[in-house]
Design brief:
Elements (H helix, E strand, L loop, with lengths): L4 E11 L2 H12 L2 E6 L2 E5 L7 E5 L4 E9 L2 H14 L2 E4 L10 E5 L5 E5 L19 E9 L2 H12 L2 E6 L4 E5 L8 E5 L4 E8 L4 H8 L10 E5 L6 E6 L5 E6 L12 E3 L8 H4 L8 H4 L3 E2 L3 H6 L1
Parallel strand pairs: 1-4, 5-8, 9-12, 10-17, 13-16
Antiparallel strand pairs: 1-5, 2-3, 3-4, 6-7, 7-8, 9-13, 10-11, 11-12, 13-18, 14-15, 15-16
Helix pairs in contact: 2-3
Bound molecules: fe (ii) ion (FE2).
Organism: Brevibacterium rongguiense
Protein name: Oxidoreductase
Length: 304
């Protein structure tokens, strides 16, 4: 079955200081602010109306992930799939302006997804500002207590394809219709949340500017640069001021074949198999392995 999702849509997070987190996204990642008010900041790195919305909250937490549907009919199909799979449907009203049709559902662990028709692309493609200017918000890696159940639910609801998983289902990577190795991924953790969000860059050369942008504030990279085994992508990680783990990627593998068999990789105990985790050899530090940002309370999301 062709996935009902084309690619990642947008991300909404809460931050105790949304303006500080937005400044990081501008100064280090290179996206730009497209709307700002006292209680929220919207950012985009391309023509999309908004890719990352950071709201003022009582905790640094994940609110909602938007997934761009392949069509309006696909949105309706996701709604039917959620009902058939017994997943909670939270809304059928678009949450943001510029979206025509949407359905919002929650996984059994409480991750909230809005599957939506494409957001309007009404921002200029070129813009001023520091940073390397990413192409787009690329993928999100979530945490779940039961990654296998999470992956099963996302396949059942959205028709996402399982590209790869580890032998014990500690990690799983799912792709959308654009064929990129993963648009959403999941890693086993003590509670549901987000492990990292990822911005795509045109070139490895951009990573130098990214890392240099941490120097003025005496901050350091969390992990990388390196090349993951799953996805074959170049990577670099740092934590922003709200302690969200931010990945910067380039050269993500594209799997053209929708019927490609699921890869099963052995990540080793505590991600110790460097050939799967980082083909360049350096294993992730503890702060990367244990990183976790929680889910925002669902009531706060629904009031948004
Ligand atoms: Fe990633």
């Amino acid at each position: 079955m062709r996935p009902l999702i084309q690619r990642l849509g947008y991300l909404v997070v809460d931050a105790i200081d949304p303006h500080a987190a937005a400044r990081d996204t501008v100064n280090i990642v290179g996206a730009r602010i497209v709307e700002e008010c006292p209680d929220s900041v919207a950012l985009s790195s391309n023509q999309r109306h908004a890719e990352l919305i950071i709201r003022k909250g009582t905790a640094n937490a994940l609110v909602r992930c938007g997934l761009e549907a392949t069509s309006a009919a696909a949105v309706e199909q996701v709604r039917a799939n959620c009902e058939a799979a017994g997943l909670r449907i939270l809304s059928t009203e678009p949450s943001l302006p510029g979206i025509e049709a949407a359905v919002t559902f929650a996984t059994s662990e409480g991750h909230v997804f809005e599957v939506h028709t494409p957001m309007s692309a009404d921002r200029p493609a070129r813009y001023h500002g520091p940073g390397a200017h990413p192409r787009a918000l690329d993928h999100v890696n979530f945490t779940a207590v039961d990654p296998r159940a999470w992956a099963d639910e996302m396949q059942a609801a959205c028709g996402l394809l399982l590209s790869e998983r580890t032998t014990g289902y500690e990690l799983a990577w799912l792709r959308a219709a654009d064929g990129r190795h993963h648009t959403v991924a999941v890693v086993k953790s003590h509670s549901p949340g987000i492990h990292h969000m990822s911005w795509e860059f045109p070139s490895f050369d951009d990573f130098k500017n990214l890392a240099d942008a941490l120097i003025p504030d005496a901050r350091k990279l969390t992990w990388g640069p390196g090349r993951h085994g799953a996805g074959d992508n170049l990577f670099l990680y740092f934590a922003d001021s709200a302690d969200f783990l931010i990945e910067c990627v380039a050269e993500m593998e594209v799997i053209d074949d929708e019927a490609a068999p699921v890869r099963i990789s052995a990540a080793g105990e505590n991600l110790s198999n460097w050939r799967v985790v980082n083909q360049w050899g350096a294993l992730p530090p503890t702060e990367w392995v244990e990183h976790h940002s929680p889910l925002a309370a669902l009531a706060e999301d629904r009031a948004a």
